[in-house]
Amino acid sequence: MKMKKKISTERRTTYYLVYTLAFGIIALILYMHFFLNGKSLIWSHDGVPQHLNSLAYYGDYLREILQQLFIEHKLEIPMWDMHIGYGSDILTTLHYYVIGDPLTLLSVLVPADKTEYLYAFLIFLRIYLAGITFSRYCFYHKNSSQATLLGSLVYIFAGWTIYASMKHPYFANPMIYLPLILLGIDKIYRKEKPYVFIWSVALAGVSNFYFFYMLGIFMVLYAAFDYFVVFTDKQERKLLCIGKWLAVFAGYSMIAVLLAAVILLPVVLPVFGTGRFQAENYVPVFYDRIYYEKYLTCLIGENMIQWGVAGYTAIAMTGVFVLFSKRKKNTALKWGFVLLNIFLLLPFAGHVLNGFSYVSNRWIWAYGMMIAYIFVKAYPEFYLLDRIEKRRVFVFLMIYCCMALFPEAARTERNMSAMILLVFSTAVILLYGSIFVRKRNLCMMVSVLLTAGIVFNIYYQYSYEKDYLSEFTDRGKAMEKLESGTDLAVLDTDDPSVFRYDQQDALSYDNSAMQMGTNSTAYYFSVASGSIGKYFDEMYLNTPWEQHYDNLDGRTILDRLASVKYFVTKNGEYRYLPYSYYWLTGSAKKNSSIYEAFESRESLPLGYTYNSFIPREKYDKMNVTEKQQALLQGVVVEEASLSEADLEFTDQEIPFEIKKGKGCSLKDGKIKVTKEGAELELVFQGLDNSETYLIAEGLDYDGLSPRETVSEKKWEKMSRYEKNQVIHQDSHWRYWKESQKASVKVGGRFPDKTIRIFTDKYNAYSGKHNFLCNTGYGKKAKTSMTLTFEKTGVYTFDDLRIVCQPMDKLAEQTEKLKEDILTDISIDTNRITGKISLSEPKALVLSLPYSKGFRAYVDGKETDLIQANTMYMGLMLDAGEHEIQLVYCTPFLIPGLCLTLAGALCYICLVFFRRNKKKVQKL
Hints:
The longest helix is centred in the first third of the chain and has 34 residues, at about 1-35. A hairpin with a 2-residue loop joins β28 and β29. About 45% of the residues lie in helices and about 20% in strands. α17 (about 385-405) runs antiparallel to α18. By secondary structure, the chain is of the alpha+beta class.
């Protein structure tokens, strides 16, 4: 027995050494595409401001905690940071990227300036571990080492890792946990220890809530399929027996979820209040036609739309053919293959698996495990196919090739090459036993063909024609990009007070304030504060994102309410400066550009006061320009003991005329654009000393097919050839893709601005259709603006108007709010303190995003903290001198911790129960 165990251990050791070698070679080939082109593995769009930024921040964060613990001998875990957006919860913001993922704990060992190397290492480490866990799953089911090794390579070097995991490193995490969860299910059914299941589910829960949801769905599906594989007796398939097993899994799952609750609960609950989660996305019955035309070839070739990045090595499809050639074997796998393909073919499945949000097939890593395991099960059959089964495989190949290549759209270079490799791979399998008979030769040929398919997919993904590499930052430059010239200019002011800065087209990457220690108005993470989103909706802020905002569009009133003291522009671009930002206080040079920080001496501090209020019900009935003016005159709350504000509005709606340009027409609130770059000119007479706004309410967009852009009159004059060209273009046009988003450039004798429109077909859609575009402040009146439409299509709106907002009253209104302000402000770990002296009862408003995590203390006594002006926090104070203290704790963290402790107790009880039960059975 010991000898067998020793042999088994040696074989497993040999296996993992060979696996590591094979992984290393292919990973090196993949990495060399980056290295030889001077590129890092950091995606420019999200990788720098989100992934790398979060990892570097997390390393500093962990080192700070350890320093306090071992050097200062105290334990204070920072939960809130003023430098993240307008001030954000650290856990809920960064969980999606780093907090909870056990692997990112390695960041504590790496200095921030070396994070790029850790980032690359973790990408490959995640992929490597996915292969390890898949191998463990295969070995549990007594598959051979050869089959398992090859299957592991199919699993970890598919399109999902080659493409998606390079962009978003944590996208590889579910690939690690899925095999472990499924292995845990198998162990439970076979009445073995449930610990693998419990801990893999718990780890998946703390690692990433987004993929945890998908893992939960596939866990249930697998458990259902596996039940009928394990239990074949009719008695075991009765409802009573099924119910018993449901209870068992429910109990183990509950323990796992409770163990994860300390992170899961505070992270998940805030998501339900966001506009992005609540938005009603477009979910068609079917995808665009081209999706189905390219579907079969994309399984081994190009990337599919909606994140359907399959890209499996061609011989993996041969494994599918072999599986189905065996009529009475692996029935559950066959049904699983059919079911997951149905999921890929129906948008509704992508909608459900993506949390009932936009349609996305980001669950395709689970499909990849199925394909890989099919190959593992099919591999031994390669050597055992009889003549009839080989005929079936050949027929499957012919049917697949004909169906895959019949549509013209599918016949791309990459897909054709993949199909040739598939034909050759299948031919090798079919010729075994006739042309060559040695098993070793077939094993070598399968290994070579499998590796060739992977390398082929890597080559095409990173080819110069595809230009995917251009989306990644240059090697060694990523962290430097987070040291923005904008932040350097602000730091050059040497201003010790607490303030924010705003900017326009001067910030290369959002979230740079996290690294630089400044306070900005920019934010770009996947989860955002609901109160901020609601405020921006009320103000019609010119951004279509809920979770991504660069600035406050240069709107002076909003900047003042947000305590924006400095506005940063690049040298010479002074037309961007809002009203009152006149004093150049700081400057910095970065990459041949000079950044300049201009101070406003009329800005509001972090805490300012109102002596009157505006009832929420009254405020909600105002239009957007009235709302922003009202916020300078009274605090908006549900009710208060203060007197109601006597409001004065100075905005004026300006009549305008429309001069239509070529390629667009206007009728009944619809602008039909049949030519890219078509223009409309709005002519009006504005006001002096004003900001001039273009306000669009109910703005939406719908794409036009190539045929719809041609008028009937023009169509009749076209030749047959020209008509056929248009019809050909029409056949390749994708309504879903082309109707996702559009933009309108607003230009004139002022800096160009852009209104971006996201429709319900776009993955970042959050329900925004009302926009206020600030064309800027002008001492002299503006007289025209030109709207340039990026794309052809129909732009619809409920109302389009021009409004001028005079600046005459701003100084007086601001000074009134500054009469009594919060002084001696100190921001420490989870604590904000200050002092204030009042001559009368007032409402103190702190320009910090409202959060239920804050508790307020006035003169040492806990006081109700109210949501003021939609976005900010407020306190009702009596006359006199007061000491203010705000203390922060992540909402739902304490309940989550209690649940985790309860889960730990349940787990301990389970362990003792099983041990005692085992002892009793031995007796």
